[in-house]
Design a protein that fits this description.
Elements lengths: L2 E5 L1 H8 L5 E5 L11 E6 L7 E7 L2 E8 L4 E4 L2 E3 L1 H7 L5 H17 L9 E8 L14 H4 L19
Parallel strand pairs: 1-3
Antiparallel strand pairs: 2-8, 3-4, 5-6, 5-8, 6-7
Helix pairs in contact: 2-3
Length: 164
């Protein structure tokens, strides 16, 4: 059974439209999907209205650091353009992404769950689409350009019919 990942309605729409190619999750004791593994993306996970958005094959599982006070994003140590990265993650720009993360942090505080510092988040990027051109400058660093695929996995990350 594929690992499930849940998304709010607006990000579910971005996935369906092909504007969101990854999810960023906190480092935790639970395992995250590995390259080559199929995952199930849901809207309203753990609710009565849960709906499958898509099943996709993971291309990469990469360490990500988001810096909110001095806008910067690093993926596997490489600097990314903050607005282009935010767009690849389904947001209009870095400000929209920052606001989303601040809201998540506030909800976690109200629920009594552990939270990341307000100015920084370190986590894991689970990516199912190839990087969009320009995120890392004129060329994608070779280390990030090669899909981290398992031997049995197909090189095309998106399953047929995903965006139909």
């Amino acid at each position: 059974m594929p690992l499930p990942y849940g998304f709010p309605a607006d990000l579910a729409d971005a996935i369906r439209a092909g504007r969101k190619g990854m999810t960023i999750r906190p480092i935790s004791r639970r395992r995250h999907a590995a390259p080559g593994e199929t995952v199930a993306l849901y809207q309203g996970l753990r609710t009565r209205d849960c709906r499958l958005i898509a099943r996709v094959v993971v291309l990469a599982n990469e360490p990500i650091v988001l810096q909110f006070d001095r806008p910067s994003i690093r993926v596997s140590g490489y600097a990314a353009d903050v607005d282009m990265f935010a767009q690849f993650d389904g947001f209009a720009d870095f400000a929209g992404m920052s606001n989303y993360w601040a809201e998540l942090r506030d909800k976690a505080i109200r629920a009594g769950r552990p939270v990341h510092p307000p100015d920084r988040f370190e986590g894991v990027g689970i990516r199912w689409l190839p990087w969009a051109p320009g995120i890392f400058g004129p060329i994608v660093p070779e280390a990030l350009d090669r899909p981290q695929m398992a031997a049995k996995a197909r090189p095309d990350a998106v399953l047929p019919g995903l965006f139909d």
